[in-house]
Amino acid sequence: MTASEIPNEMKRLVVTSAGKGTSVADCTIEVETVPTPTPKSGEVLVKVTAAPINPSDYGSWYLSKADSYPIVIGLEGCGVVVATGGGLTTYRCPVGTKVGFVCGGGKQGSYSQYVTMNAITEIFPMPDDVPIEDCASFMVNPYTAVGILDIAQQAGSTKAIVHTAAASQVGQMLNKLAPMQDMEIINVVRREEQKKLLEELGAKHIVVTSGEEEVWKKELKDLVKELGATCAFDAVAGDMTGHLLDVMPIKGSVYLYGALAGKAGNINPSDLIYRKKQLKSFYLTSWIKSGGSYQMVKRMMSAGNLVNSGLGQGGWCCSQFEDVTMEKAHQSIVEALKSSITGKKLRIRFD
Length: 351
Description:
This protein is an alpha/beta fold. It is 30% helix and 25% strand. The radius of gyration is 21 Å and the shape is globular.
């Protein structure tokens, strides 16, 4: 694409209203036509090929303050560099480079036909041998999986971890990545069909919580003891957080990183006071930035190489996508939430 072929205007998705402010379905999401951004020095213009719809995006769509709307949406995406604003840093990603990108600052969203990104802090070169559209979900889920195992190993849980909502995209990736690091995953899911999905991936240890609480908790506690897990990562919250603390060994830890069931509860104070168990949090951005700039660069280079090596078909972090258009994205999200879809991730295509 030449400079003369870059349009003066582009389309993007914005949330214009939270509605009742209780769910994604309440939101009003519209396609907006705006001027195509122009890259400044140190920035590149990316023609977006695709962007995934991440559950971590949803909350801000309907829980933000009234004066925040309209909100541009979409955190990550992928595409091709079609122009640069010049400057030394843009030499790492000249025109034609296939890249992934992460939007920051709230001024741009990945659900856009074009975005301008900082060539150093917001752009990630993608592997040449993987179709660029298959790199759409390169950041949030894969880096979360890498971060979870890294935190567990730092905490001394080097043999196994417990993971809830284990049939999710992150859960599936963990089951592929953990064996590469000689670790095992104790998967906790709600339904038998989710167990079957994980078994097809080769998962060995799966606890289904739809039966009698006493039965599945004993099964989980026995696996924790047998495999030597001292950390659990909880995307569910609600009563599950307390159950996990209960089955963890003395001085074990539960890391919250989601709230699918609402506020964490069901916690026995004795687990925290006398058994010295800990309730902590895992937040991807905090993990990336921990330890200062040097450690962050080192961590991101290592994680980036690991992620890029697994993005291709059959790789540990490749995603299965269901493609949607900008116009149908909202409806598709609402339908996906109703069906608790876990097998495929929604992806908006712009090409």
